[in-house]
Design a protein that fits this description.
Length: 271
């Protein structure tokens, strides 16, 4: 018989509640919206991105309510970013969900295997997400996405990428893939560098349970904006500038958080 502490049982309860939201919550609250837009909307991609944002905003509101020891500090400037390539460090599976929740219109790169899954694959394909593999059965899809990217960014959509390509296990910034920077240069859009802290302390890689009982402060900050004009200096210099910004975001401590109740991570109403 398990002899878990009260904190361990609390972590299990939070974890199961989150999984319940991802299954039953999706079926009851959001699946009808996706189905209706998939059948009748003339702007399916935009509608699906908006639903994805709402789904994950609701998820983080739920998580904040059931795990009050998790404190959230989201830079208010991030939600206003438009028509840009956004790069960020990667600590946890929560990271892409948190970024999707920030932007009404955003696309990103997803592991190609997810495009083969029933329902979920249809959702991310219709939402305009990019497969991580540009060869084989995904070559045509990637080509279509890249051809549409200049118009998408010009219309105010964002592309966010984790240029390290995988989650960091030690917090250090790993080797950066230049693909996102090439897209920014080709499309003539700025690059915004974000810094994420402590999502891995809540949902640690390789661990099933959320560490919801442990006090934690999760921060998402805008570290630097690199204008499109800076791309004239070449990709190597741009890559170096992005790396320095990401390392600075890791090294700089976030602002002090008092013991007072933290504000909600998404202050405006969910659309």
């Amino acid at each position: 018989m398990w002899r878990w502490s009260a904190d361990r049982w609390f972590d299990l309860g939070v974890t199961l509640t989150c999984w319940l939201y991802f299954t039953l919550g999706f079926i009851v609250l959001f699946a009808p919206r996706y189905a209706a837009s998939g059948l009748f909307s003339s702007r399916k991609e935009e509608a699906f991105q908006r639903y994805n944002r709402a789904f994950y905003r609701c998820f983080f509101r739920l998580l904040r309510a059931i795990a009050p020891r998790q404190r959230w500090e989201i830079d208010e400037r991030i939600a206003a970013l438009r028509g840009a390539v956004i790069v960020c460090n990667h600590r946890s599976y929560l990271d892409p969900l948190l970024l999707i929740a920030q932007f009404e219109r955003a696309t990103t790169i997803v592991k190609s295997v997810f495009f083969t899954l029933p329902i979920f694959g249809w959702v991310i394909r219709t939402a305009g997400y990019l497969p991580a593999t540009a060869t084989g059965r995904f070559a045509g899809l990637m080509l279509d996405r890249m051809e549409a990217m200049p118009a998408y960014l010009a219309s105010g959509g964002n592309l966010f990428v984790f240029p390290e390509g995988t989650r960091s296990r030690n917090g250090r910034v790993g080797a950066l893939n230049q693909g996102a920077l090439k897209i920014a240069r080709q499309c003539g859009v700025p690059v915004h560098v974000l810094a994420l802290e402590n999502t891995d302390k809540l949902f640690t890689p390789g661990v099933f349970l959320f560490a919801a009982s442990r006090a934690n402060v999760i921060r998402l900050r805008l570290i630097e904006t690199i204008p499109a004009e800076a791309f004239q200096s070449g990709l190597a210099n741009l890559d170096h500038r992005v790396r320095l910004a990401m390392e600075r975001g890791h090294a700089e401590p976030g602002p002090h958080i008092s013991n007072e109740a933290s504000p909600p991570p998404f202050p405006e109403s969910t659309r």
